[in-house]
Give the backbone structure.
Amino acid sequence: MRVAVCILIAALGCGRTRARVPGEMTRTGDLTAHKGPFERRLLLTGEIDAVSAAELRVPRLPMGRVTVRWLIDDGATVQAGDKLAELDNANFVAKVRDGALKVSQSETELKRQQWQNELDANDRQLEVERRKTALRRAEIDADVPPGILPQRDYLLKQMAVRKARADLEKAEDTRDSQQRTAALDLSVKRIALEKDRRELEMAQQMIDDLTLKAPAAGTVIVGDHWEGRKLQVADEIPIGFNVVRMPDLRQIRVKAWLSDVDDGKVAVDQPAEIVLDAYPDQVLKGKVLEIAAVAREASERSLRRNFQVNLAVEVAEAEHLRPGMSARIEVVAEHRSDAVLVPREAVAQDEGKATVVLAGGARRGVTLGPCNAAACVAEGVAPGTRLERAP
C-alpha cells in the first residue's frame, strides 16, 4: 500500500508544471517575423442612403413653427398622392372661415357701390339733360333781332342764354367729377375684394400644403429630429424642416460616419466591405466616393464630431437595399500584398525608437510601417526570426 502511494506521488510530481525561471517570457504561441499580405482596416458604422430623394419640407408659415398632427410609418411603401403627414392647420381653418365671411362682405359692398354709382350717374345725367333743355329754351327766346325788342329785354334774354350755358357746363363738370369719384370708389372696393380673395386662397392653399402627399410611388423615410431620433407626432418643427423623404431606389449609396479622431485615416477611392445588419451573410463591395470637409456634431447635445463618408456600392442588389438599413463598413485603408510582418506583442518602444524582442531577450531596432490589430509592417528584421513578447 505504501509503495502504491509513493508511485502516485511520483506521477503527480512529474505532471506538475515547471515554475517559470525569472526573466523567462511565457509564450502564448510561436512569435516569428514572416512575409505575407497585410491589410489595415478601419471600422465605420453607417446606413444605406439614396443619392437623390424627393424631400417634403415644412412650407413657409407666418408663425414660423408648426406641430406634427399625423405621420406615416417609417419605411412604408406608398403610391402617388397618398398622404404622408399632416401638420397642424387649425389657424388656417379659422382664417378660411373668417376669410370667406370677409369675401362675402366685400362682394356685397362692391355690388352696393355699383348700384349707388348707377343711381348717382342717372341723377347727374338727368340734371345735365334738364340744363340742356333750359339752354335750348333760352336760346330760342333770345333768337330775335336786336331792334324788335326793347334794349333791356334783349339784354336780359342774352344774359339768360349765358346763364343757362354756364349751368349746363357746371352740371356736366359735376357729372364728370361724380363719374371719376364713382370709378375710384369702385376700384377701391374691387381691390379690397381681391385682397380678401387672395388671403382666402392663401389660407386654403396653406391647408393643402400642410397635408404632405407622395409625389410618386416609393418608400417613405421619416425625417430625423435634432435630438437624434425619428420625427414623431406632436413634435414642433420650424419652416423648411425635412418631414419625410422619398428616395430614388435606382441610385443607392452608403452613408457612414468617421470620428474626427480618425481624420486622415480614410481616403477617396479606398475599397471597402459592407455588411448589412439585416443580411449579415452578404458582403457588398464598395468604394469611398467622398469625405466631408468639415466634421459635425452627431446631435445638438453631443460632444463628438464626425465626418460624413459616402461610399458607392459596386454590387448592389436593389431589391434588398433600402434607405435607412444600418450597416457595418470596413474600409481597407492600407493593403500590401507581400510585406515582412512582426506580431504587435513583440514590438516595444525604447526612447522613442521601435524595437522587436528577439528570442533570448535581445532587442533589435526596426523601422515600423502601418499596423493593424495583430501585426505591423517592419523593416530591419528577416522573415523567420523568432521573437518574444515585449515586456
User: Anything to note?
Assistant: Residues 91-209 form one domain.
